[in-house]
Each structure stands twice: as C-alpha cells, then as structure tokens.
Specification:
Distance between the termini: 98 Å
Strand order of the largest sheet: 1-2-3-4-7
Number of helices: 2
Number of strands: 9
Largest sheet: 5 strands, antiparallel
Structural class: alpha+beta
C-alpha cells in the first residue's frame, strides 16, 4: 500500500492542475464573450493648425447597455488611429427630455492651437478635461433657442 501512495498523490495533483487550467480557460472564454464589444464610429477628424494633433469626434456603441445620443472626443497625435478601447477625454450625452440637436458637438481649432468645443443645448457633459497632451481645451455652451428668445 505504501508504494501506491506516491502514484495516487501524483495522479491527484495532475488532475487538480488540469481542472484548474480548464477552469481558468473557461473563465477567460466566458469573460470575453460576456463583455460588450464596443465599436467607435468616427464622425469627424480635425487636424490642428500646427499639424501635431488630431481631434476625433466619435460615437461609441456598446450594444444594448448604452442608449441615446452620446458624443466622445479623443485627442491623439496627428495620423494616429483611434484605439477600440479609447473612451476619449470628453463625453456628452443627450438629456432624456431634450430634442436631438442637428449638431450635438462641434470642434474647432483656435489659431493659437487651443481646441474649442461647442456643446449644443440639451447635451449634458459627463467628462471633460481642460488640457490634453499639452493642448488647452475650451468649452462653449450656447443657450437654447427658447432660452435666448425669453426677455
């Protein structure tokens, strides 16, 4: 009986190791299929006057977990591709009670190389930086047409 004990322990250790490897592989497979596969749709790319950076306005679709009108902006070196994981430095979403604006977010480079972002009425900014990659970011929030018409 003593001579069989090392063989049994070795076989048990191998089986346990195989079960652990299989469990990790199954977990990784399930996690990759359970996570939403987000896709970015680039709406516009605007290269800075100095040619060093590109401001990329995009919509990010992560399936049924996201809804409504959302706009993201990333600032990358000119010519760089927007990574699939990129969330950008700016996120604005249409307020649930607001009508969809024709142009929810507008980008413009100032002559000095600063980036101007105009956010349409009805859009709520959830994330926005004031400087990215050494570029100053400025925001404009024009009043809604109905608010501008009031005395």
């Amino acid at each position: 009986m003593n001579s069989r004990l090392p063989k049994i322990l070795t076989a048990s250790a191998i089986m346990l190791l195989l079960l652990m490897i299989g469990g990790f592989a199954l977990r990784a497979m399930l996690e990759s299929t359970m996570q939403p596969q987000c896709q970015n749709q680039i709406l516009s790319t605007l290269v800075a006057p100095q040619g060093k950076h590109s401001a990329i306005l995009f919509a990010r679709d992560c399936g049924a977990t996201t809804g409504g009108l959302a706009r993201h902006i990333a600032l990358l070196p000119a010519g760089a591709q927007l990574p699939a994981q990129e969330g950008g430095f700016f996120v604005a979403v249409l307020h649930r009670d607001a009508p969809a604006p024709a142009e929810p977010v507008r980008l413009a480079w100032r002559p000095n190389g600063d980036l101007q972002i105009t956010v349409a009425p009805g859009m709520e900014m959830y994330h926005g930086a004031t400087s990215v990659r050494g570029v100053a970011i400025h925001y404009q929030f024009p009043p809604s047409p109905s608010a501008a018409a009031q005395p």
